[in-house]
Amino acid sequence: MLKWIKYYLNKLQSPKYILKGKCNKCGRCCRNIIFYAYGVPIKNEEVFEELKLKNKRMNLFYPSGKNEYGEILFTCKSLLPNNRCKHYFFRSLYCRKYPMVKSLTTGRYLTPPEECGYTIEPEKQFKDYI
Prior knowledge:
Elements: H1 2-13, E1 17-21, E2 36-37, E3 40-41, H2 45-54, E4 61-66, E5 72-76, H3 93-97, E6 118-122, H4 126-129
């Protein structure tokens, strides 16, 4: 019970963020996706294959490279050449919420790439909290 009270108090007191801008349809959010398994980024394909057995939605993605940290980058199979989604109306919750997606490790919102067209900004400036 105490855990739930702490959760809701934190939720009420935490800074609120708003999404500004609009999608530039660059398709970058559908490429270079990093998935986490057991709290850490996926670095080998065996873990990805294991996840695909547990979650069939993972079959919608394929490994497309690695970043400088050795983390596997994934690309969505629904991305069309014109950077539109083939399954837009049936897209996953991750896609629906992007870029207002929180990092699994830090709990902070992801920073959209510059090409994206979106920015995430605090609802109030720091001086407004004082």
